[in-house]
């Protein structure tokens, strides 16, 4: 009896906390594209001028977001831990990267000008393997294993490019060309999109079905640890759907 009463109190306080999270809905619009709302939960600041590195998966196209999560999970299943180092990239940051080795100090790290990188459209992300908190940038053997896993998922891996190999880079364009993207077109998620299917505990099945149905979570990797940013995002989505 005491346990049930305590549980009810926790749920009550949790609901109150959720209702306090009130902000206006946010729409997604990648740079270089027309006003297309792909997923109302994805943040995109139109005309973004910041040059900071963005690592948020929710800044990616919904299907690329899903593929990135699948890559993380499949790598983990193969004993490799990876972290996302960059997702969406503003045109200003793209210009800064392009300038390196040309008009600014350092060596050339990209041939893509602003608007020529899939990062600028939310269709690419970069990763790095980690071990005991150490970033393993020089472990090409691990990058090659990760690259194969990514290709098997349907991603294009920069390590397979003939020139200017980019081992940390993965992208998905849905068959569209750069010219298509510059004209404002965006890829559509495949009808039979692959999903990471993991067994969920019986006691959590109803909750999983509900959060997926209500759009609060995608339901991928139900037994993974929840990071603070993931928890905040779910609370934010709950608030957007139900309000006060």
Largest sheet: number of strands, sense, barrel closure: 5 strands, antiparallel
Instruction: Measure the end-to-end span.
Output: 30 Å
Number of helices: 7
Number of strands: 5
Top-tier CATH class? Alpha Beta
Low-confidence stretches: 18-50
What is the gyration radius calculated from CA atoms?
Answer: 20 Å
Task: Give a short synopsis of this structure.
By secondary structure, the protein is α+β, with helices and mostly antiparallel strands. It has helices at residues 2-19, 62-77, 91-99, 140-153, 178-182, 205-213, 228-242, and strands at 81-86, 124-131, 134-135, 156-157, 169-171.
Task: Kindly describe this structure.
This protein has 244 residues and is an alpha+beta fold. It has one domain (2-195): Muramoyl-pentapeptide Carboxypeptidase, domain 2, CATH 3.30.1380.10. The chain is 35% helix and 9% strand. It contains 7 helices and 5 strands. The protein has helices spanning 2-19, 62-77, 91-99, 140-153, 178-182, 205-213, 228-242; strands at 81-86, 124-131, 134-135, 156-157, 169-171. Strands 1, 2, 3, 4 and 5 form a 5-stranded antiparallel β-sheet that branches. A hairpin with a 2-residue loop joins strand 2 (124-131) and strand 3. Helix 2 crosses helix 4 (140-153). The longest helix is centred in the N-terminal third of the chain and has 18 residues, at 2-19. The relative contact order is 0.15.
List keywords for this structure.
Muramoyl-pentapeptide Carboxypeptidase, domain 2; 5-stranded antiparallel beta sheet; 9% strand; alpha+beta; globular; 244 residues
């Amino acid at each position: 009896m005491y346990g049930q009463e305590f549980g009810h109190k926790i749920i009550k306080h949790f609901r109150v906390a959720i209702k306090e999270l009130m902000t206006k809905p946010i729409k997604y619009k990648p740079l270089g594209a027309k006003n297309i709302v792909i997923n109302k939960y994805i943040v995109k600041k139109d005309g973004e001028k910041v040059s900071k590195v963005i690592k948020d998966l929710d800044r990616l196209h919904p299907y690329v977001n899903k593929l990135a999560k699948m890559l993380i999970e499949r790598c983990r299943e193969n004993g490799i831990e990876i972290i996302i180092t960059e997702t969406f990239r503003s045109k200003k940051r793209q210009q800064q990267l392009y300038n390196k080795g040309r008009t600014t100090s350092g060596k050339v790290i990209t041939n893509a000008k602003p608007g020529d990188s899939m990062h600028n459209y939310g269709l690419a992300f970069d990763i790095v393997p980690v071990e005991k908190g150490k970033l393993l940038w020089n472990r090409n053997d691990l990058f090659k294993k990760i690259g194969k896993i990514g290709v098997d998922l349907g991603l294009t891996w920069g390590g397979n490019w003939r020139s200017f190999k980019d081992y940390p880079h993965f992208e998905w364009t849905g068959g569209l060309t750069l010219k298509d993207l510059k004209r404002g077109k965006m890829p559509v998620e495949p009808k039979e999109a692959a999903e990471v299917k993991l067994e969920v505990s019986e006691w959590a099945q109803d909750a999983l079905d509900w959060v997926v149905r209500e759009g609060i979570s995608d339901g991928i990797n139900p037994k993974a640890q929840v990071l603070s940013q993931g928890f905040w995002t779910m609370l934010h989505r709950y608030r957007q759907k139900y309000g006060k």
